[in-house]
Amino acid sequence: MRPCGLVRPLPVLAGSLVLAGVALLGYAAAIGQAQVVLVLIVPVVVGSGPWAFAGMLLLMTGFLAGFWAAATRRGPTGAPPPRIDEAPGPAPPRPAAPKQRVAGFVLVGPIPIAFGSTKALAATMLLLALVALLLLLVAPALWGRP
Question: Which of these, 20, 54, 48, lies nearest to 33 by C-alpha position?
Fold first, then answer.
């Protein structure tokens, strides 16, 4: 018997497995079979008992089921995508949009990562990232540590 199409069972199963895994890991931490520590901003679970193992197993199974559900997802109606020979003709050309220039930077710890749509913008972002890094390194010395 096929489901009615309103709720797909695989994403629900994936979410349920993830929640059950988190609950088991919480229980394992409460009874001393697991420890949760933060490495930078990433939570790391260290377990030494069967409840921690079961929680991690459920968590990983839930993640895999979620990835599988996303990879095998069909259109909104559940119908397979149209075949190439059934696809509509080419779309009419749109007017050319003005060229956009974008740039930015990310500081991953002390490592600046700069990007931009042109080399000049990327170089400017790298310079700004280095200035921001310098400010982050000098600010504690200027204003003292809390």
Answer: 48
**Three-state DSSP string of the chain:** CCCCCCCCHHHHHHHHHHHHHHHHHHHHHHCCCEEEEEECCEEEEEECCHHHHHHHHHHHHHHHHHHHHHHCCCCCCCCCCCCHHHCCCCCCCCCCCCCCCCEEEEEECCEEEEEECCHHHHHHHHHHHHHHHHHHHHHHHHHCCC
Tokens in use for 144?
């003292």
Q: In the beta sheet, which residues pair with residue 37?
A: 44
Reported as a single tens digit per residue, the pLDDT across 22-50 is: 999 889 989 988 888 888 777 788 888 89
Name the amino acid, one letter, at 97. Answer: A
Contacts of 50 by beta carbon, 8 Å cutoff, 6+ apart: 33
- What is the pLDDT at residue 85? 62
Distance CA 4, CA 16 (A): 20
The number of C-alpha atoms within 13 Å of 44 and in the hemisphere containing its C-beta is 6
